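chain below, 779 aa
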Amino acid sequence: MSDFGHVNSLRRHLILGCAIAALNAHPGFAQTAEPGGTGGSSPGGLEEIIVTAQKRSDRLIDVPISITAATGDQLAKLGVASGDDLQRVVPGFTAKPARTGVPIYSIRGIGLDDFGVGSSPTVSVSVDQVPLPFLIMTPAASMDIERVEVLKGPQGTLFGQNTTGGAINFIAAKPTANARLGADLTYGRFNEIDANGYISGPITDTLRFRIAAKHENRDGWQISETRPDDHLGTRDFTALRLLLDWTPADRLVIEFNANGWIDKSQTQASQFVGYHPTVPPGRADIFALIGTRPLTPPDARLADWFPGQSYRRDNSMFQFSVRGDWTASEQVTFTSISAYAKTQSAVPTDTSGVNFHLFDLDQRGNIKTFSQELRAAIALPYLNVTAGGNYQHDRTDDALGVYLDSSNSVVGPFFYNNILESANQKVDTFAGFASADIPITATVTAQMGARYTKQDRDFEGCLRDGGDSALANAIALLPTLAGLPYDPAPPGACVTLDSTTLQRLPTVTAQLNQSNVSWRAGVNWKPDTDMLVYANVTRGFKSGGFSPVPAVFAGQFKPVTQEQVTAYEIGARAALFERKLDVSAAVFYDDYLNKQLLGNEIFPPFGALPTLQNIPKSTAKGAELEASARPLRGLTLTIGVTYVDTSISRSFISSDPYGTVVDLKGESFPNAPRWQGDASAFYELPVSSELNAFFGGDVSTRSASQADFGNNPDFEIRPYTLVGLRAGIGASNDRWRVELWGKNVTDRFYVTNLFKPGDSLARFAGMPATYGVTLRTRF
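prediction:
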């Protein structure tokens, strides 16, 4: 479908969403004030929301950056239960699984597709301003939240070195002054049983607590194509959080957070959609297995995997954080945030999409991270200043075990199947930052800020024999053919060769030490209290790093260096008609140097393999519009549209997944649809003095995108539209609520990722239609 044709299709989908909104419902974003905040509304109008996007409390309408905010109650009514679900309600946000199952988040087409658990994303995630620096750490971030704030574009001045795409800030629901209790219980398709709840209240006059917990359980939703009685995709996830708020003195508040989760869910199997040997012409025995195998039809539930093997995750994380806020005077507040987290992962995945043992991944990770931030906020009549510094130490041990039986698992006469890729990194990051708001006139304010960041990164890793000496014998052939002496590798040892001498190295070590200065300058105009116009220029950076690759030669462990973006944005937001309509809009242009993207490179003897690359010059430009309206009491409508045009603007020679050499100039970024939109509504009306009925719906749509470079139609992710519906009844005081809900109610087949494991082409399908009932209670 052409871009013009899809624009018309997108318009039809959004009109459909508005029609559903008129009959159904969706809680409008940016409506509800933070408990204890300053939000208000006119009768029958939309309420305000208080956000901390600038590390202080502001009305959303006063924040001069692109931001989408929603309360936890609004997200719960929409069934948004995870970070991935945000793409249903945040224009310009996308989420997809990497081939190892690690989530990949993108905002306005900017994301990082990598299969290493220790890779830093371009979209940062934090809970109560405590960073979760690796996306594998984030499954429980959305549990029991007060609100979520999605900041779009580079945010490096206040939030660090990796926010070139944006930042997602979850704000946890806080301990309460009075005893509170709440619980949700859900039963749905595939025997889904989800339970979550909280208890909160005072312990003493100065100490409050809140305990939140959740457990998600579901049977396997995938069906084996060759064994119909064999299912995969069970869900087994548990999370717990303890919050303590202590006020030992009038001007001192200390917040303690202990949280953790355990994930024993099964990984998703892929669908087989093609045979293409990595090293032509391929192997006859592999061709006999899959060369003429029927392709998986477009049925989300169908897939295949090697029988009799466990594909259950063994992931876990725990985290502790302490935040102290000391109000030294009415104008000065000092803040300290300390945090430590440890994450362990074991993620087995069959990526080949067939019932033969062809390409299995076993991702093993161990992450330890410590962070410390100290800052001061100074509020004067004519000047607001935030200044401070932080330190972060990360240790990531990343091991990727690969079982492969394909055309590239042979060197000369030597066949091998088991390899181990390791990439262990130790990272120390030091930063100092400051930002200031300077009034110029009564309605015009200038903003400026800067952050200096220095990062020292140490790497150790190599390609290892799988323990059976098969790979060691295959690699030994290379120096032998060159007539060089060689020290054979013992089973399980490192087999990576020095690029010059072709001698085996016990391990490969490297360093990447870089620094940068990110900054932001802007001006905003407030003609009245309910209108804002702003213009910003921002310079942001994302740190470089190393990824696990099958490095036969040490030179293959070249790191990606830091990327740089200069972003230009003009935007406006307004509350109109006595706050019955909230509108925000922005246009933006992002100029990138050394953008980090997952491309492909020829690695003898493995052929074309995915690897992170620095694209010298690229751009992203576009516009977005969001609106919320309350035309009638009890009826709230929302709509959002984002257009993004990404492009590599300078010649860059690379490879497509099939090993064809291509010039990437003019290509769009992978996983960057030009058009995205969502529309939704929520209508609640009284049926008696004690009961309310409600019903609602939401629509999200996106245009086509490419899963990889090369503009090959085999890697096109086709456009799709998803529809959700819900209806129920509840107490007028919101003490209880019963809701029937459905997601993807049209059972639309859609693809979330396409990739090439070995000699097969495979895809991940999105979830089919799901439906269920939820009981909610609050006391």
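Residues 3-23 form the longest helix (21 residues). Confidence is low (pLDDT under 50) at residues 1-41.
thats it, cya
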